[in-house]
Amino acid sequence: MANTNLAKTTYGLLGTGVLLGAGYVAKPWILGDRVVDLLKVHNPERQILTIASPSYSDRWKKAWFDYRESNKDRDKDAWEIGDWEKAKTNKNDVPAPSSFIDACERNSQARISGKSHPLYQEVLQWCTGSSKVSIRDLIRDSGKRSLNEHDSKTNEKNGWKPLFKKYFDNYKNQSTDPLGVEGWQIKESTVTAENSGMMEKFIEKCKSLAQTEVEGTGDPTYQKINSHCSADIHAEDIIREAYPGRRLVNVSKFKNKKDNPLALEIWQRYVSKNKEKTTGEDQWGVKSWHLAKERHEVPENFWDKCDEKRTQPIKGIEDAAFKEVFDYCTVEASKIGDWGDTV
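RESULT FIELD:
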């Protein structure tokens, strides 16, 4: 197995030109081709995963799982990406860590002698996916998300209910609908989105079609799902979908229980992160911060900020808002008890 640190050193030197005898070679391609370029020639059916795709996409989660499976019996993983002991898990729905994504990016750019080189085989095995991509991953790449089983069916502002109402109102007077929802013909004028009984069929159609693998965003099915079954990304969506070990807290319950142990645990986490900051400089602008940080109870406006941040549109887990929601609006699932949020 090729060591990623070796790849960084050796292939980095090759990329700048080296001394051979008395002459200087300024053309690095003489010494090898980039892995990513060789893949296009020898394995065009595979596509390099890039940092443009979210770490919680199906492609990256599968790549990370494959890497862990290939290295599970080793004391040190092949690329020594760090935190290996922590990474040992047999779950296949774990978001890829940035260290693994960076290793894929780095090694795919390395120059090697040919497809028989060990690094080529490793990048092919661990850092590529099918040239066809699931619609839901393509939508994630665009900065949105296709809704799934973790989304609310009752929330009036976010989730399935407003999506279905818009779809129903647009196509209720048509004999067919873009998605081909089963039994769509709406004949009675008194039928509404609420009493139509069609929302479950709409949801299942969206979820099913979102799994379809397509060549790109020009595919008609992609365009339908993107138009009718997708929405902005919010921090709470990613936590529900990609972090089963964490649960969002029920803010309404915490507001009335200032001395709740879980609430205090979160509050102390916030205080620890912001203790050196003066009033107005802490992350969430807690009222009278210089006094609040000395108290052993949670200020009410703290939970208002939690409500606001968790539904704020974001691009992905790299956004500061996601990190804040993860740190201050969630606890370990094993601790949550009756204090967890419900979809």
